[in-house]
Write a structure and sequence with these properties.
The structure is a homotetramer of 423-residue chains. With 423 residues, chain A is of the alpha+beta class. Chain A has helices spanning 5-15, 29-32, 65-77, 80-86, 116-124, 134-146, 154-162, 165-176, 184-195, 201-212, 227-240, 246-252, 289-301, 340-350, 372-387, 418-422, and strands spanning 40-45, 50-54, 60-61, 99-101, 108-110, 198-199, 216-217, 222-223, 257-259, 264-269, 273-278, 322-326, 329-338, 359-370, 391-395, 413-415. The first copy, chain A, is built from 16 helices and 16 strands. In chain A, strand 4 (99-101) and strand 5 (108-110) form a beta hairpin. The interface between A and D is medium-sized, with 13 and 13 residues.
Chain lengths: 423, 423, 423, 423
Amino acid sequence: MNTPVPDYLADLLRNCKTAHGGELADYIPELASADPNKLAVALITLDGLLYSVGDDDYEFSIQSISKAFTYAYVVEKLRLEAVMQKVGVEPSGEAFNEISLDQTDDRIKPKNPMINSGAITVHSLIPKAENDCRAETVRQFFSQLAGRELSFDLAIFQSEKETAFRNLSIGYSLRNFNILESDPVEIVESYLKQCSINVTVKDLVNMMSVLVNDGILPRTGERIFSHKTVRQVLTVMTTCGMYNAAGDWLANVGIPAKSGVSGGIIGVLPGQVGLAVFSPKLDRFGNSVRGIDIMQQMSRDMGLHLLEGVPSSRVIVNDHDVEQIRPGLKVYKLHGVLQFTDAERLLRKLQDEEQDGGTIILDLSHISLVNDVGRRMLLDGIDRLRADGHNVALVDPENIVPHAKTPSDFEPHVYQDLEDIAK
Amino acid sequence: MNTPVPDYLADLLRNCKTAHGGELADYIPELASADPNKLAVALITLDGLLYSVGDDDYEFSIQSISKAFTYAYVVEKLRLEAVMQKVGVEPSGEAFNEISLDQTDDRIKPKNPMINSGAITVHSLIPKAENDCRAETVRQFFSQLAGRELSFDLAIFQSEKETAFRNLSIGYSLRNFNILESDPVEIVESYLKQCSINVTVKDLVNMMSVLVNDGILPRTGERIFSHKTVRQVLTVMTTCGMYNAAGDWLANVGIPAKSGVSGGIIGVLPGQVGLAVFSPKLDRFGNSVRGIDIMQQMSRDMGLHLLEGVPSSRVIVNDHDVEQIRPGLKVYKLHGVLQFTDAERLLRKLQDEEQDGGTIILDLSHISLVNDVGRRMLLDGIDRLRADGHNVALVDPENIVPHAKTPSDFEPHVYQDLEDIAK
Amino acid sequence: MNTPVPDYLADLLRNCKTAHGGELADYIPELASADPNKLAVALITLDGLLYSVGDDDYEFSIQSISKAFTYAYVVEKLRLEAVMQKVGVEPSGEAFNEISLDQTDDRIKPKNPMINSGAITVHSLIPKAENDCRAETVRQFFSQLAGRELSFDLAIFQSEKETAFRNLSIGYSLRNFNILESDPVEIVESYLKQCSINVTVKDLVNMMSVLVNDGILPRTGERIFSHKTVRQVLTVMTTCGMYNAAGDWLANVGIPAKSGVSGGIIGVLPGQVGLAVFSPKLDRFGNSVRGIDIMQQMSRDMGLHLLEGVPSSRVIVNDHDVEQIRPGLKVYKLHGVLQFTDAERLLRKLQDEEQDGGTIILDLSHISLVNDVGRRMLLDGIDRLRADGHNVALVDPENIVPHAKTPSDFEPHVYQDLEDIAK
Amino acid sequence: MNTPVPDYLADLLRNCKTAHGGELADYIPELASADPNKLAVALITLDGLLYSVGDDDYEFSIQSISKAFTYAYVVEKLRLEAVMQKVGVEPSGEAFNEISLDQTDDRIKPKNPMINSGAITVHSLIPKAENDCRAETVRQFFSQLAGRELSFDLAIFQSEKETAFRNLSIGYSLRNFNILESDPVEIVESYLKQCSINVTVKDLVNMMSVLVNDGILPRTGERIFSHKTVRQVLTVMTTCGMYNAAGDWLANVGIPAKSGVSGGIIGVLPGQVGLAVFSPKLDRFGNSVRGIDIMQQMSRDMGLHLLEGVPSSRVIVNDHDVEQIRPGLKVYKLHGVLQFTDAERLLRKLQDEEQDGGTIILDLSHISLVNDVGRRMLLDGIDRLRADGHNVALVDPENIVPHAKTPSDFEPHVYQDLEDIAK
């Protein structure tokens, strides 16, 4: 058998209803002459498996989608606080407010890194490498994420440079407020070069896999971003990624996203999937018409929505999973995820244990995930059971509660297997 | 033993660092004379267990927190589209933009239901009941959610009414644009009465439990809101709940929230918990200083953040959970949650099954949660296994894949227990 | 013979080119049903002679034109500084800025008295008379200026009151900032009653004659406004009288003006004429289309433009008007106006007088106007002539340099007639 | 004797009350190191006589004052309509609105030529001369007006150029909207060079004399600007000349003006005087503190205010100036100015003439000024007298009613002198 995902994606393209709406970006000839019929979708799983359909090898300039990755890069390289001094995280509203007084710290700065003023500022924060070229630093970094050598589209870059009046206006305004600290022409041109990097939808989901997987590139296992950086990037994608309609996008699609004027849209659901769509015709806000349509469809079909609810296990432990092996020896076979909600429910169940001095074994071998608070509550519960006079042991073959040591400094016995206990 | 949650909450109050910051709201004497030392926290779990500490029986007027619940009520009673015609879902920015042209549909309307213009409009949409009083409808509804009879604080209501100049100005402006369709004085006064309903933090988390639990009131099992309504309310709480700093709140706390001028803040993490804090001293944006501090602390300590990542099971099926009971009979013991990511991984594993015509039993008895896409993918996978020549049966004692019928119209055999199969 | 003015005005109406443009105001039925063909012009001279043509006895509600006169009334009754605390004098720009922080004194207040927020505030400043009704005070005052008993149009007033949502919104907003200090509903309704006073174009120019004539009502000779009040009112008419295009109006018409939604426009050129036009069809800014057309035409035809230049006499004294009657006795026959420019030129001429101790007679009998600085410079010049050893005498039959006393405390001899001197 | 003007000006400097307020402009070192004690005033009369006191030979960079003269130059060289397509004439309000949609013609353009965006655009409209340098064209033009060779302050120019971030931002924004049609860097730098031209207060009033005198340079008699150009420039100086407070300035000073950041202010009262003040310390809006103080003082002392009222002659003809020389021959000795108001009064007087067929002589030899409408009304009146059966003759030695020909094609007899008639 084959998984149905490729079939699903192919169906999605076939049924894409708004096939004829929108207009090509026309401010430079290279975009105006794009093939309006190109259409591609790619999807990457938490563990890095990539599915793609349509024109998935077609290269297009990354444009504003680059903003999300460059922001992540800069937040990771500098302290977040330093970046926040320069660029905010608030939705932008009107264009003329692009640079405005921030209400939380009374500093003049771009509202967020997803509008041009913010993205240019973010670009200026890229530490200059030996090559002395920020755009090249970006290209190398994007190539690392994508897993292949990406290149600049020099024709696009040249055209953008010749008509970059608005970005240069923004650049000089940023320089005027000392938000940019060196020549704005150099920075704006380097930023435009960043936007001209060519990618396919497959490249984009490969790049996104690091955001899906909490900062670790699944292909290599390498940690690229800290947890804090990932959360920060996802935050700005949530509130500022789609032009002019943060609330509408969150209500209807609910996937942290970013679009680009060449027709790409990316979406990330942390811990689940990364999505990329490409279709060059744009709505009046500059978002790909078919791209939005497909993202909405996938959100609906696949239950991918930030506010769907973190799917708590209905039960961390079923009644029939508590086994009284013999008098004085009881086993709790836990399964599912162990985070706050679940840990709270487990401890609630353990409250009913009589203070009979017996042994309680917590079998963690079917726990699929545990987070920090889940671990801490589990250990705290063990302490409390001991205080009530119980012996407590863990079965933890995959070491999901590493170095188990409870708050009161007690180390429970840890077995590899329930069988061990019998011995 | 006892669960550590009450101790944790008590610690939280004790350590609340910003105990002395902020100022009491002073626009009416009733708020200006509040006891600044009152402090309370409550927490409710997905299944409706309530924890609370501090002044948890202290009553205060619900104020703007009511906006979230009234919005939910109106979205549920009317079609969402009808409500969207009147009130948007976008972050608001500056005050003077309270009523402005919406960019997505070119209508003049309040930006969202969490600012006063939006909340007054939402109040006007409450269908008039027999009692002919919208505020009374609200009071009865809030009482139903809270599980006890709530009452109006008439002294507060009277004071608000006497100084309601700004709200009356907004009301007449809404009437001018025909967003309100009847006398704005009556609507504004009824809205103020809604804001004067007295609650405790325990009432608040009881009310929120319905949002935590996807629209079903855990205390009664009654469905109050549809899934769509809950998602809509959580969306506006995410982007518009905390004044003036949607991005900052999402980055730092990440809990859909709403604050009120009397000093309360509520926060909801769908599928996990509901939180309420009360402390009357406010920062310059009108949010409770200690309330924000405690919410941040809980988000950090308890791993409660919308963008933490939906905790996918690391494995829906471990290798040692696939058991070849005998030639031609294999059992997959699934556990954890079954949504898109997990289903995709399961089906990927099933791809490796040889086309040997044997029987495959999928044991769902340890699956803790399955969502729609998970169910559909599972059934689709069964179909594909059959197409490959396998017999497929399910063990589904809790009927989590109800009326299992695959796309190709095949009903797999469903057992109550693995033991049944042996027979 | 007859003066050509009536013929000119009649021609103006006949040739009015834009006869068919514009739309009737339609927010209340009384205005929507106005006769669109009504057309009237009136003109009043500095000394109060009234010319009028067309439907000059047709009554219409004064509407916003009342703002100019009520402002004058309030500025006269209160100290200007007190009024300036409440309402500014700056052009308004966008509607949402109606109430905004004033840059010069950092107070929140309406930008000027010609927009509704300012006019409502101005109305609230009318001292309450015995009749306890500000609108009645206004009606009596307007009647005094118009020279006949004016009346309210109660049907218009009633309609306005029923749909006054925007004004009530403004009123409550003003009350919120304590710019209004009592019930806004009462003030707004009284303001609407002020706007409903019925006038004809003849009434309007009679009312304006007091502004043309520097505060003195020509019909009665009574001083109604101080010089300072008149200048203040003309200032706001210049910068804020015509909606949304202060600069455009000043460039093209150059007459301090005010328009009303019923179709009237008034224009004042201080020291020269007052104009009123009526035609009910409006452009998109709410100004009478034919009214603007006629005002432009009159400005052009009649050389009426604020920036035409104050027409200084080419010469206060011609060479052939200096007569050496006999040795030691010289007469300067002055004519024209005597203000700074002219006085400077006269004194410059007197510089050339030899210090021969002779008598110099300044004949002022043909001086048509002298202002304060002209008088002071003349007296200063006399002093200087005396210091040079001259005797100086004045011929001043109309006493235009009253109580002539020079800075050094010398009183020149004053004759009624040049003939007197001969004696 | 001497005229009191120099003494008056000297007193003015001595009494300047706010001697210590304000701060030097500090954005470039050249301005920050200006001598704060420099103080100068100059005044020029309609006929070009110059008075000056204080540091009247001290040179400073003209800065924004240049905007008024460059605007006049461009309006004169191009059609006004062409300039209005590019730059409006409305007061600006907030800075971020510098470039905004114009309400009258729905074009995006700078609000007026006195803000930087407008002034840069105006500079770009200067036709390029042989020297291919707009700044040099400006320097030559300013030198022509000032009557001496002016020079650039290259140190100031260099400093401005190095920190011109805001102007470059504006320039690129203008380029983006195609308001600038070539390289903004070149235009902005040339504009900065225009601002660096060194002038003294004496230069400034010499330059202004052409605006005082309706476009004719008094020193040479050459017409530099049309009447229409002068009126246009004075309009924008009235509504936009002083930063941020058009209404306040018009109310309190009432002189069309322009200030510069180096500390100069100019003011023009058409037909009367030109004023220039220099003192480098600025208020928070960038206007010279002592400059404003002195301008206010002069407006008050010298009766110089646009809204003072155009001083109409009280009488164009006194009763004792109508002489019945013999039966059938009557002489009207007119004096003063002859514009609409006066002409209307004269014709009103002539209405009383009996239809006796006698000769009426209008003696214009003491008329000091006649404008177009005055002339037309006079000729129209002559026609009407003839129609009533009178013979009419003029005494017009200075030919102020040139080529007198009445509407009905009749040429009245014109004498050089009353004596001629006797003959």
